[in-house]
Amino acid sequence: MSLGKPSRVRRAQLVANELEELAQRISRFPATLGQTVDDVEVWLCRTSRWAFGFEPTGLRPSLMLGRDQIGLRVLKDGKLGAASCTRFDESTWRGCVDQALAAATTTAGPSQFTAPRTRKPGPLTFDPDLCDAILAPGELHRMADAVVDNLRHEATRTPGLTAFGGHARYTLKRFVVGTRGGVCASIHGGVSAEVVLNRDHADTFHTVHNPESFQPLALLGVRTLRGRPTESASPRDLGLRGRVPVVLHPRAFEALLRRLVAPLMAGSSKQNTLGFREGDRVAHSAFTLVEDAGLDGLFSSRHFDDEGSPTRRNPLVMRGRLTQTLLPRGPNGQPGSAASYRHTLGTTEPQEVGPRPTASSLFVERGEVAFHELVAGLDKSLLVQSFMGLHGADPITTQFSSGVGTGVTLERGRESRLLAPGAWNVSGACLTLPGGVAGFLSDIVLSRELYDTGTAILPYCLTTLSV
Predict the structure, then answer these.
(1) Nearest to 256 by CA among 399, 396, 357
(2) Distance between CA atoms of 280 and 271, rounded to whole angstroms?
(3) Which domain holds residue 434?
(4) Residue finishing a domain among 160, 195, 226
(5) Which residue has the higher pLDDT, 455 or 56?
């Protein structure tokens, strides 16, 4: 798809027209299969991205238009099969249907898929004004150039910048789910930017709505540079060893929740493995975790999940107690938790052809203490902004040991220092398992301030981890 050079209003309308065409073609496909299947479900995610990478020598343009990820599930004589492809082509889909039928296995599911139910796309995750503004010829380039230019200008007055990187990009996603019972579709678009300084300090920017001013984005590099400490420190410099107080930046907090807590909520099998039941205490009474794809302004928010069910608010942990788990659609068409998604793990082909329960947008209820009060009583501690190596964490025991990607020290009586890259490692467990050691969520203080990560709204979290 090429947006060409239409007027401002026309840009968002082209995207909407394209979505309508995608939905119509998918809705017509089941009828072409006749009686070869009892029902078929077609899932589509089309991704486009306009981006500029930040480099000391200038900007590196990157453009991706219309990368398709398509998953098909078929029902025939009580058997369910699945296949996937990356081509928006009906003949390719028919080949996938044959492949799915050949591999189909007996299922306790229904003889047909429940008809998708849709809500009209709105400003929840796609704002036509933002699309029109950011895709104006040269506009994204102009803002990306402003980030780099302002950063370079500030660097002349703040020595110490030896390298920087990052990006500014606008991403469009179109989701369509269709069966013989109907079709639903939605558009999602958002701006994101990141600046990384000397590989040891970073900051980000996210928005899915058209802001009154793009100045916060243009000044991202300046703000990041001004907030970067000039000195660095190792564990030996601070004399820290063993269990120490750690403040988790919301980005780091979210990473741990998604890797180690959300899997617990995704179905009864893991719940039984861990020995928890609904109502059991799993965290401090100050901790409330909600999965809510209807949160306005997050790029991860959705009007419907990948089974076509209208999404809803799912309280997972309330005041420290397990409230519910995320369940798939039932065998008789019950919508379950309406939180079943396909995750492609960064590849071009769906790794899980069938959707599975997982968290989309997360929300953690704010605490009662302002951030400056949260850290005022700390003598020596760490503010961890990001991790590297969480892929090795164990979602069964919720234990992790990970290097710190970026962060700063919190020291009474002196300015913060950068956590020296590669020198810091923190470990612990998220949850207190039956008969196990206490997890960090059992002893926390949460900030009053909330932070938008682009996929979650979270406070800062003060806890204790091993260094």
Answers:
(1) 399
(2) 11
(3) 232-466
(4) 226
(5) 455
Comparison of pLDDT for 57 and 401, the residue scoring more: 401
Q: Residue type for 1, please?
A: M
d(CA 73, CA 39): 8
Same domain, residue pair 156 and 303: no
Q: Are both 306 and 175 inside the same structural domain?
A: no
Band the pLDDT of 432: cuts 50, 70, 90: confident
The number of domains in the chain is 2
Predicted confidence at residue 397, as pLDDT, reads 84
Looking at the fold, whether 166 and 246 belong to one and the same domain comes out as: no
Band of residue 240 on the pLDDT scale cut at 50, 70, 90:
confident
pLDDT for residue 1 is more than 50: no
Tell me the H-state helices in 114-177. 128-134, 139-155
Average pLDDT over the chain, rounded to an integer: 88
Phi, psi of 225 (to 5 degrees): -65, -40
Phi, psi of 281 (to 5 degrees): -80, 125
- Specify whether 76 is located in the same domain as 37: yes
The rounded distance, in Å, linking the Cα atoms of 311 and 294 is 7
Same domain, 118 and 149: yes
- 422-426: average pLDDT: 92
CATH assignment at residue 144: 3.30.2290.10
209 shares its domain with 60: yes
In a domain, 1, yes or no: no
Pair of tokens at residue 294: 């209807």
Res 137: pLDDT: 82
Q: Do 349 and 319 share a domain, yes or no?
A: yes
From 116, 115, 97, select the one nearest 35 (Cα to Cα). Answer: 97
Please check whether residues 300 and 274 belong to one and the same domain. Answer: yes
In angstroms, the CA 83 to CA 40 distance is: 11
**pLDDT at 4 > cutoff 60:** no
Structure tokens at 132: 């029109």
Each residue's pLDDT tens digit, 247-287: 999 999 999 999 988 887 776 444 444 566 777 788 899 99
Identify the domain boundary among 203, 226, 249: 226
Gap between the Cα atoms of 314 and 207, Å rounded:
24
CA pair distance 82, 51, nearest whole angstrom: 34
Tell me which of 55-64, 319-328, 350-359 is least confident. Answer: 350-359
Q: Is residue 2 part of a domain?
A: no
- For residues 357 and 309, give the distance between their C-alpha atoms in angstroms, rounded to a whole number: 12
Identify the weakest region by mean pLDDT among 137-151, 156-170, 282-296, 349-363.
Answer: 349-363
Q: From CA 72, how far away is CA 88, in angstroms rounded?
A: 12
* Cα-based distances in Å from 347 to 81, 85, 96, 176, 350: 22, 12, 19, 19, 7
Distances (CA, A) of 341 to 85, 122, 223: 17, 20, 36
